[in-house]
Amino acid sequence: MRILVLGSGAREHAIITALLAENAASPDRGGHVITAAPGNAGIAADVETVALDPSNGALVAEYAFENDVDLVVVGPEAPLIAGVADPLRTRGIPVFGPGKAAAQLEGSKAFAKRIMAEAGVPTGRPVYAGTVDEAAAALDDLGAPYVVKADGLAAGKGVLVTEDRQAALDHAAYWLQHGHVVVEEFLDGEEVSLFFLSDGHDVRPLSPAQDYKRLADGDLGPNTGGMGAYSPLPWLDERWGSEQVFVDEVTELVALPTVRQLEHEGTPFVGLLYCGLIVTEQGVRVIEFNARFGDPETQVVLPRLATPLSSLLLAAATGQLGSTPRPEFRDQAAVTVVLASEGYPENPVTGRVVTGVDDANARDGVAVLHAATGTLDGDLVATGGRVLSVVATGADFAEARDRAYAGLHDITLPGGQFRTDIATKVVR
User: Fold this and answer.
1) Per the UniProt record, which EC number(s) apply here (predicted)?
2) How far apart are alpha carbons 63 and 305 in whole angstroms?
């Protein structure tokens, strides 16, 4: 297939890496021709990149049509919420990613909560606020710990969970400058990220992962886009008996009702339904939905995927998931650690030279996936906050974790920061 991948982060690099692995596994079949728009320095070393704005639906559709693209895969949330998938579908081009209306599942917390209510999906009680006074009343109504969320997109930085009422109110006041906020019931438990492929009617699950949203060790510091992740989640076996039992429960309680509700409303969800879940004493609850692959969870889920990714994406894009077997995963552990620039997430320092990536990539079981990278005078440089994801697989979590950190220590970024406690609890 000719596949166009939209985006420029480590998530897109992970998707492209999985697709390229299919080429390596079956060289006699000719392989996929993959193009990325706009990509980054690491992606450009692997596939062709084009300077195309992924949020400009008309331009993307014209490029895909003129270049006989068989499948478009939309990585980030911003192009989806801008509606990039709609003109592609109008031109008859298969696209993995929901249209603008269905992408509001991520674009608006209020929309997502309404869909959950209509579908009977278990979640925390929300109170909506459009003013500081309304936010203050909601905080007092729900009590501490306080959970305040920006209603719209916030690059992973719109959620605050705190015991400090003034901090919660300040967070609400800041995001009220950009729209409404949602003050939500606090839910206590372990978080789980679970991805579902959807063709608008049927779903197929991938393997669960857990990410680390806080900047610093011990889950301290501000929220980020994600500082690391691991997959699978062995502690699910202790409560459910197996990962499959847990996944089946979430499929029936969360994923299918949500997808069927959107279908019922005439806005079918075709793409990746990211279910951000929390396992409470009362059962599984939804924290949030996203309309695309999560980052950095994708970096640990896809290396374990044994089923060809391209066949799953195309089946979802063309309404064929109902006849597609459940995806299969390798019996191995995967860990990723994110290397971020100094000053991230508030004010990341860019332009600094990154070295040692080739040394890390040369290690057994290690792959360095680029996020915010570019080239300057022949050097690899950081161009944003989260710069690289160092991914490692192993027979168990101890091996995978050791490999990931060994690869990370090969890499030098002046002022770079990373967490040292990714996956420690599953190793123990």
Assistant:
1) 6.3.4.13
2) 30
Query: In this structure, are residues 353 and 374 in contact, taking their beta carbons and an 8 Å threshold?
Result: no
Write the pLDDT tens digit of every residue in 205-242.
999 999 999 999 999 998 899 999 999 999 999 889 99
pTM greater than 0.90: yes
Per DSSP, 252 falls in state I
Task: Give me the torsion for CA of 65, 12, 40, 93, rounded to 10°.
Answer: 0
What average pLDDT does the chain have? Answer: 95
Q: Which amino acid is at 281?
A: E
Q: Which fold has domain 333-427?
A: Glycinamide Ribonucleotide Synthetase; Chain A, domain 4 (3.90.600)
pLDDT band for position 158 (cuts 50, 70, 90): confident
Domain 2-103 matching CATH 3.30.380.10: the answer reads no
Residue 227, CB-side half-sphere exposure with 13 Å CA sphere: 26
Q: What is the mean pLDDT of residues 174-191?
A: 91
CA within 13 Å, CB half, 302: 29
Task: Give residue limits of the domains in the chain.
Answer: 2-103, 126-184, 190-323, 333-427
Beta-strand pair 33-38/386-394 = unpaired
